[in-house]
Amino acid sequence: MAFKMHEIRELIRLIDESSIEEFEIDKEGTKVTIKKSGAPVMTVAPQAPVSVVPQAPAPAPVQEAPASPKEPQVAAPTKVEEEVEDANLHKIVSPMVGTFYRAPAPDADPYVKEGDTVNGDTVVCIVEAMKLMNEIEAEVRGTIVKVLVENGQLVEFGQPLFLVKTT
């Protein structure tokens, strides 16, 4: 990727503190667009190279050898099954653009992990925005099923952070 995370964070901070409503930059084929109308939105999309020279056909996909009769066949969940399962879970979402932290300090244990029980006022993480540490609460009672983002990852407004099976 042409941009480093600290460069993107700095761009967001500068745009957020300015009166600029929209900003776009292209660096080494990667385009970053930041818009500030209502909910902040950020997209990072590599641009496809334009080629005039015909390319060789793509190689044929590699086929896996059939499984032996001794190996059980397990079907991966379909997209529809995953959506139905997700529909039964509450999503804790980020209320702002910022950096996601699972623990109050780098050497501390995470606030919550998969399998932990939470209630409405349980702090589940911190989202840092403009040097302010914002504690995010579960707002529901239930069990953490999945942590959807990595520690230190940049998150967007409305991005799901955790899945909770409510009780």
Automatic annotation (TrEMBL):
The keyword Lipid metabolism applies. It comes from Laceyella sediminis. Pathway: Lipid metabolism; fatty acid biosynthesis. Residues 56-77 are annotated as: Disordered. Coiled coil: none annotated. This is Biotin carboxyl carrier protein of acetyl-CoA carboxylase. Residues 89-165 form the Lipoyl-binding domain. Keywords: Biotin, Fatty acid biosynthesis, Fatty acid metabolism, Lipid biosynthesis, Lipid metabolism. Residues 56-68 have a biased composition (Low complexity). This protein is a component of the acetyl coenzyme A carboxylase complex; first, biotin carboxylase catalyzes the carboxylation of the carrier protein and then the transcarboxylase transfers the carboxyl group to form malonyl-CoA. Gene3D superfamilies: 2.40.50.100. CDD domains: biotinyl_domain (cd06850).
